[in-house]
Amino acid sequence: MSELVLDAHWVEQLRRALLRWFDAHKRPTPWRDNPDPYRVWVSEVMLQQTQTATVIPYFERFLARFPTVQALAAAPLEEVLRYWEGLGYYARARNLHKAAQQVAQNGGQLPTTAEQLRKLPGIGAYTASAIASIAYGQPTPVVDGNVTRVLARLLWLKGDLKTTAAQKQLWQLSAQTIDPQRPGDFNQAMMELGSTICTPTQPRCSECPVSHLCAAYQRNQP
């Protein structure tokens, strides 16, 4: 699958429209109010396989008990799992605890690059890029289910988007679209758009801030 090079003017329009919408409509969350690297990390792990509305009360309770990476590292695993109870997918909590211990042993500072973050247990390409962009302002692209759907509709990408070649192309496209001045906000805006407007079924195209740039909308086939 050959690399698709996006038109620079189209990309600039996308960035402006999406960030303007995000500034006006983003959902308030405790990790957005204070994008500390540790808080962003915990939120991203909790948000794997779990809806935002469900995560918020668990996040607040978890952070009240484990406010720092050092506090999490020092806690017994059994207690960490108890505070995770109800979120499911307990491997996430085990990896979070193990990674916190590694970070604490190395000075207590989370790595600042996506490449370094990926060396920690439970942190894959998406989570590493999300933390690097949101917490550290690095222009690292993200690709998850929401971003995949938004890009596929915007650019009329067809076929199986889960193949290795398709995923590689999606990461390349995400890298081209990300706003270098506000990478964390842009990544969150793409995910927010996919979660609230550009949904899998019955997308709310009339409310979409980038419908005028969307190939699927222009074809009346969202």
Describe this structure in words.
The chain has helices spanning 8-25, 30-33, 37-47, 52-65, 69-74, 77-84, 91-105, 114-117, 125-136, 145-155, 164-177, 183-196, 215-218. It is mainly alpha-helical and 222 residues long. It folds into two domains: 8-26 and 141-219, Endonuclease Iii, domain 2; 37-136, Endonuclease III, domain 1. α1 crosses α12 (183-196) and α10 packs across α12 (183-196). The chain is elongated.
Please tell me the overall pLDDT.
Answer: 95
SS class: mainly alpha
Strand element count:
0
Shape: elongated
CATH architecture of the largest domain: Orthogonal Bundle
Total domain modules? 2
CATH fold category name of the largest domain: Endonuclease III, domain 1
CATH class group of the largest domain: Mainly Alpha
What summary fits the major beta sheet?
none
Task: List the uncertain runs.
Answer: none
Element-level helix/strand string: HHHHHHHHHHHHH
Helical coverage, percent range: 55-70%
Show the helix and strand layout.
Blueprint: H1 8-25, H2 30-33, H3 37-47, H4 52-65, H5 69-74, H6 77-84, H7 91-105, H8 114-117, H9 125-136, H10 145-155, H11 164-177, H12 183-196, H13 215-218
Helix pairs in contact: 1-12, 3-4, 3-9, 9-12, 10-12
What's this model, at a glance?
61% of the residues lie in helices and 0% in strands. The protein contains 13 helices and no strands.
State the main characteristics.
222 residues; mainly alpha; Endonuclease Iii, domain 2; Endonuclease III, domain 1; 2 domains; 61% helix; 0% strand; elongated
